[in-house]
Amino acid sequence: MNLLLLSNSTQYGRGYLEHALDTVTGFLPRGARLAFVPYALADHDAYTAKVRGALTGAGIEVRGVHEGGDPTARLGEADAVFVGGGNSFRLLSALYRTGLREALIEAVGGGLPYMGASAGTNMAAPSLRTTNDMPIVEPPSFEALGLVPFQINPHYLDPDPASTHKGETREERLTEFLEENDVPVLGLREGSWLRVEGDRAVIGGERDARLFRRGAQPREIAVGSDVSELLRVTAAFDTRA
What we know:
It catalyses: Dipeptidase E catalyzes the hydrolysis of dipeptides Asp-|-Xaa. It does not act on peptides with N-terminal Glu, Asn or Gln, nor does it cleave isoaspartyl peptides. This is Peptidase E. Keywords: Cytoplasm, Dipeptidase, Hydrolase, Protease, Serine protease. GO terms for molecular function: dipeptidase activity; serine-type peptidase activity. With 241 residues, this protein is an alpha/beta fold. The protein has a single domain (2-151, 187-209, 221-232), classed as Rossmann fold, CATH 3.40.50. Helix content is 25%, strand content 20%. It is built from 7 helices and 11 strands. The strands form 2 sheets. A 7-stranded mixed beta sheet has the order 3-2-4-5-1-8-9. The chain has a 4-stranded mixed beta sheet with strand order 6-7-10-11. Helix 7 links the parallel strand 6 and strand 7 (185-188). The chain is globular and about 45 Å long.
């Protein structure tokens, strides 16, 4: 696998992908033909235009998979694929409907570089169960792409001790997930990402990650840390503690 999994595509005070542009353009070398999957948002043309505007200056050719013909055929013409953020339920539903779910699993498993942001990063996990999104549509299944064997929580937010909000914190929700499922969850804070090359996985970006495991206290994972052991876990869903 050759993966770049971003927590977010837009960082406060910066333009689209600007906070990770050096990493993105290193992952997608100049002249790369990039197939963009815009299905997490409703306006596919506008979304594709935004990505094209962010990457054209780096010499990357962006084509939306919705732009004429069979979306799955775009993968065969591309040097890499980027699955953008938005609503994870809408995105996964579209991947099933268009046949892209199976096509992506096959293409990325065969070596096609995969970049995801937010919802696109959620898709790389085995299941949709650790997304932060509202289920605005109902996909046929929660089964995502399973490019990595563990779960990811993009946009991870730390509890605010000064908050008067009495709803569940992100940490509490992930703890609830682990009460029912035995699979690690990697919380990626804003501005961070995970880089996977073959059997090696490393945390990158501006902020540390947070790792949740059943029966253990969450622990901080510093930027630059090797988390390759997560690539060797076996996920067990619907397994009560």
